Amino acid sequence: MAKRFISILLFLVIAALLWYLFIKPSDYIIRFETETFPGAINQTIKLWDQTLDTVQSVEQDEDLYHLTQRVKFNDSIHSYFWDIEPINESKSRVVVGIKDNNLMNSIKNRIQVPFSKTDFTKRSEETVLDLMENLKDHISKFKVEIVGETESPSKYLAFVPLHVTQFQKAGGMMKNFNYLTGELFDRGVQFDGPPMVIVNEWDRVNDSIHYDFAQPIIRSEKLPIGTDIEYRRIFPKRALKAIYNGNYITSDRAWYALLDYAEKNNIEVEQKPIEVFFNNPNTGGDEMSWKAEIYLPIKTDEE
């Protein structure tokens, strides 16, 4: 009986050792918590990696909660596996698994990590700390307040259709603002509220959007024809609403906050955000005073 117990124990020890050395996904794991929601972390990682000369690639896995990043240090390629877990509406937990893609280096790391601080662990901690500092700076520059269920606006729009990345959204607005409003103003068209963005397609894996940059107007016979400007009416729909304060470049953070709210409250939504902008960025001022209303339409039984 004792021999059998020892044999089973020995087998389990060897199996655990083999798993640890050859199968375990990462060589080293770092955990931290942060006062923001997963979408903001996801976007910060993607933008942060563009500032690093050592980054080879960053890819979103099945959803925005999982990212794989490859970073080059000298002759080694390290993989960073980012797992983001929401704790509540304003707090998330991040687990980062780091692995040297060279098998022999990986085994060496796994042997040394439990017993000493190595160059590998120091470099990993410095890299993750850099991300944490970028994230802390980012979340200090915007605020999202969930209002709840309401109706999205009903407006007649003059708009310019655009296809860009999420980060380029504000640039597309600024590039077309003078053209759109100038053409309408020259024809004597009456405006009917602040500028808007209506997202028609949102590719969350590649962070690209098809959207209409729009100026609500009063429909009339004065509308410019034969230009790049198009026209349509949008009708009110039940929607989740948030108030965003901050630079309009990152107003899409409110989209993710609304998605999280919808998931937690079992509300089915269309991933087609609508934004209403109440400040002109060209006038400058404190960005935290800039305001946008963000709507995420709720799916109905007919859809």
From TrEMBL:
InterPro entries: AraC_E-bd (IPR010499), Reg_factor_effector_dom_sf (IPR011256). The keyword Membrane applies. The chain crosses the membrane at residues 6-23. Keywords: Membrane, Transmembrane, Transmembrane helix. Residues 145-299 form the AraC effector-binding domain. This is AraC family transcriptional regulator. It comes from Croceivirga thetidis.
